[in-house]
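Worked example

This section walks through a single chain of length 339. The input is the sequence exactly as stored; nothing has been trimmed or padded.
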Amino acid sequence: MELQVNGPRGSGLYFVNDADKCEAILVGVVRKHKYLLRGSLEIKGLWRNLTWFGYNLTGEMDRAQPLRIHIMTTSVRKSYATDLTEDQWELIAPFVLPETGAGRPRTTNVREVVNAILYVLRSGCAWHLIPHDFPPSGTVYDYFRRWQRDGTWELIHQTFRDQVRIQAGRETEPTAAIIDSQSAKTNEQGGIDGYDAGKKVSGRKRHLLVDVMGLVLAVVVHSAGIQDRDGAKLVFERIRNRYAKLKLIWADGGYAGKLVAWTKASCEKDLEIVKRNDDLKGFHVLPRRWVVERTFGWLGRYRRMSKDYEFYPETSETMVHIAMINLMVRRLAPATQTA
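Given that input, the structure is written out below as tokens.
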């Protein structure tokens, strides 16, 4: 007797001659699919009821049609604090679910892939240390890189930023912004790095341009050995043909000098330096500059960004975008508190 099994993780063709052999094959199929929370199997041939590994396999025999067995777990995976809610997933799904149309149909649970990426970012674990109740780490990283290369992360970030601004009663185009940098140590991963003599840090700088709400408009990651004035030019070059209404940018004293005139001549934007009051002692909140410092504080909640663990600066920039996506999606669809 021929037994054909088609499931979410592949298919197989088996030849069996008794019910016990058929049951053994089904046990192996359940083992193969056990990481899934839900799915379905389709079999042809002899079959009998089976409950194994917390799965209930149910169906009806029809010799004329393939028998479809639905898989349901009796114990659902415990959620992580980083998991998306249903409402949050509905906001992200339209960007990541479409398929290219080439190759075989997708079998990966894309929502679980996104949850795994958020887990890595928030917990700071390495890719190969992703918990086993997520899809395989290689699959998760492949999707992460694919969405980085095709601009999906940046598109989600830009769309959510516009929606958060509208939610706050603002226009999508900002008229003012704040720029600053943060030095972060690197590790043995390699890649571009340098030495920031001012902060005595060997690694890279994250250069951010944020709006008055603290939402990221542009991010450039470069060597820590590049001065803030030169790093700011990289940021301004990236937004040269964007944000037509942006006319004013605030910065600290590290950006003073020729950069002010260069910004006006090259980008047609006013760079205003917010200086400290030398008469005041100790810590004081400076007008406008605190906004970008708060954004760095938001990013500091994500342990993956405690250092720069990435080989490519572009990957570090993507991590900033995903961290802000995680923050903004929770503003757009707050998680409800149940009693």
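What to look for: Residues 113 and 142 are 10 Å apart (CA to CA).
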